[in-house]
Structure to design on (117 residues):
């Protein structure tokens, strides 16, 4: 079935039997990856930093698999996603250790801005 859609490359992870095909996935190769990133951002804003970090990490792996290594913008996007992984991990540790507000990690420490978080 996937051969009928130009966005479905044989190297994509969803070629396996355990991947559920949806109209969204078939429509765009990047839709699910960007959807994961949006979901990660929603979880981050809701304070579910552990879950957000996991979504960011999955998105990073997916991005790495499908990106063009020669495209600088793809590399920048991957770095952006990985900075979010690290930021969310730091927030989880901060919360787990019940440190004060002065010890809270801020986006700038991870190369992110407030508008990106």
């Amino acid at each position: 079935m996937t051969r009928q859609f130009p966005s479905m490359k044989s190297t994509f992870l969803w070629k396996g039997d355990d991947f559920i095909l949806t109209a969204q996935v078939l429509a765009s190769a990047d839709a699910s990856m960007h959807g994961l990133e949006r979901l990660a951002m929603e979880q981050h804003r809701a304070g579910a930093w552990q879950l957000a970090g996991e979504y960011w990490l999955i998105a990073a792996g997916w991005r790495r698999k499908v990106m063009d290594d020669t495209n600088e913008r793809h590399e920048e996007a991957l770095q952006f996603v990985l900075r979010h992984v690290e930021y969310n991990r730091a927030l989880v540790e901060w919360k787990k250790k019940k440190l004060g507000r002065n010890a809270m990690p801020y986006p700038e420490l991870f190369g992110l801005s407030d508008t990106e978080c």
The mean pLDDT is 81.
